[in-house]
């Protein structure tokens, strides 16, 4: 687990280690089958898999990228300090390349397992069944890593999470846990998922009211809550930017007073949340058919 946080070279060596990823997946599968999702070894395995999924899209060997990607993207300002937890996942522009992956292999091996639907379902199962916060956070974080890029793989993973594996109910439940880091990672995952336009209506229907319910009434009082609040606003922005229907859902959820209150604070400490709320309000105003409702 410590070594998997050692940076790009460490991740590369561990991904290439024959049988390592397969063994980690095998152990976690066994723990779920034996109804033991809360043991420490399972937590360690999931944290390792989480770390090995970090920046996976841009660190895959060329042999994989030639068969999977139409085009590699050069992304600057990459975080150089990966780790099991924290703000590690690469921030990407809210855009998509909605191209499906080649057909999945029925028996993935090694690095192929990291984005395979089998492991995605394992993460979702752990999110639902484990009561260990670190295991929940690592499972959410792994999915966040896998959905953080701009190529076809992140969007294929997003479709698996939302449509094939019905993962939204489990993720939605994590919005109400008391552990702030788990909640923050769940929101960051939803933000990544919401970039996929084909999934936005499903996400809005399933989690938009929940996102509104955890928005603070005013500017949040800590860095982690501030970041979570900003991510909620950007997720709502993604869901409503191109959909007047979803914007009306947001309006009917009585969220505007909260969003306005957050946007009006000009303190440097909370500028991230305030800026995100302002971007959301600006976007909502672009739906001219809702102007009279907004004014009321």
UniProtKB/TrEMBL annotation:
Family note: Belongs to the beta-catenin family.
Region Disordered, annotated ranges: 86-109
Compartments reported by the entry: Cell junction
Gene Ontology CC annotation, any one: nucleus
Comp. bias (Basic and acidic residues): 94-107
Gene for this chain: Pkp2
Protein name, entry field: PKP2 protein
Record bears the keyword Phosphoprotein: no
Key words of the record: Cell adhesion, Cell junction, Repeat
Superkingdom of the organism of origin: Eukaryota
GO BP terms in the entry: cell-cell adhesion; desmosome organization; heart development; intermediate filament bundle assembly; protein localization to plasma membrane
């Amino acid at each position: 687990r410590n070594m998997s946080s050692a940076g790009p070279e460490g991740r590369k060596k561990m991904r290439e280690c024959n049988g390592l990823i397969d063994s980690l997946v095998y152990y976690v599968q066994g723990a779920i089958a034996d109804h033991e999702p809360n043991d420490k070894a399972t937590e360690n395995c999931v944290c390792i898999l989480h770390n090995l999924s970090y920046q996976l899209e841009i660190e895959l060997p060329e042999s994989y990228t030639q068969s999977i990607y139409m085009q590699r993207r050069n992304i600057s300002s990459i975080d150089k300090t990966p780790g099991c937890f924290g703000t590690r996942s690469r921030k990407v522009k809210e855009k998509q390349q909605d191209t499906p992956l080649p057909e999945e292999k029925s028996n993935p091996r090694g690095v192929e397992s990291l984005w395979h639907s089998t492991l995605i379902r394992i993460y979702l199962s752990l999110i639902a069944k484990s009561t260990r916060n670190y295991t929940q956070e690592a499972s959410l974080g792994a999915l966040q890593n896998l959905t953080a890029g701009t190529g076809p793989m992140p969007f294929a993973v997003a479709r698996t999470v939302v449509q094939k594996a019905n993962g939204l109910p489990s993720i939605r439940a994590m919005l109400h846990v008391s552990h702030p880091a788990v909640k923050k990672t769940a929101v960051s995952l939803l933000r990544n998922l919401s970039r996929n336009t084909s999934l936005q209506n499903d996400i809005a229907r399933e989690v938009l009211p929940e996102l509104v319910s955890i928005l603070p009434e005013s500017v949040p009082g800590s860095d982690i809550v501030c970041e979570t609040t900003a991510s909620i606003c950007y997720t709502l922005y993604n869901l409503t930017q191109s959909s007047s229907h979803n914007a009306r859902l947001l309006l009917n959820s009585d969220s505007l007073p909260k969003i306005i209150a957050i946007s009006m604070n000009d303190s440097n400490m909370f500028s991230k949340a305030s800026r995100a709320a302002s971007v959301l309000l600006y976007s909502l105003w672009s739906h001219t058919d809702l102007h009279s409702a907004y004014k009321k």
